Amino acid sequence: MANERLRGAIIESGMTLDQVAERLGVSAKTVERWINDPKRQPYRRFKYATASLLQREMSYLWPEERTSAEVTEAGNAELIKLYPHRSVVPNRLWTQLYASAQRSFDVLVYSGFWLTEDAAFHQVVKEKSAAGIPVRFMLGDPDSAAVAVRGADEGIGGAMAGKIRNALVNYAPLFGLPGVEFRLHSTTLYNSLYRADDQMLANGHLYGVGAYMAPVLHIQRVAGGELFDAYAESIERVWESARPITSPTDLAGSDA
């Protein structure tokens, strides 16, 4: 059976299929398939966009989806604690988080310089490497435009690129360890993300403020929740687009 709710919502909106498709960034034929073949459902991001465009609950257009109230409730359960500033997060929490990792150990930052000076963190990385757990570091490419912009945003200019280079030097003993990989990214980060399995610390980036003064969300994956997975998917996208390096000085060929 066709998705008559979606068809009706489009008709009531006064838009044509072509107009809906253009607003969503897909083809009109794709929208037609969503209507005529319920098995060909859009990706979740397009479901959200369509529901917003047509001013309907996603669960109305696709009844198998949960209501916004249900998603919100699950999202609240994902939040373990909110810290107003990174500087007030207990120092032990970072190492405790990564010490618990059994499957995923990810660090996505521009420099994360403060963490590079933590001897306990270095020890955890070595232990996880020895245990066969993959460890992924994603630092900003110091020659990229994104790093230059972030340095300007924080009011430290070229010092941001310098912090990244210094961070890589501090991480020198970790290069070459089994399962430990380093990559440089040129993306615009809105959060620094620190993930261990199904827990994560998300440090927001605020214009004109250093990350140490920005809020940190301590979150966990919860069945039915979407917050953790949204951040986790962001990590994967950066990882896929980032450039592998094999030493602290392997900066040639960046995308500057």
From TrEMBL:
Gene Ontology MF, one:
DNA binding
InterPro entries xrefs? Cro/C1-type_HTH (IPR001387), Lambda_DNA-bd_dom_sf (IPR010982)
Origin superkingdom: Bacteria
Instruction: Check the record and name the Gene3D superfamilies matching this protein.
Output: lambda repressor-like DNA-binding domains
Where does the HTH cro/C1-type domain lie?
A: 6-61
* Protein name per its UniProtKB record: Transcriptional regulator with XRE-family HTH domain
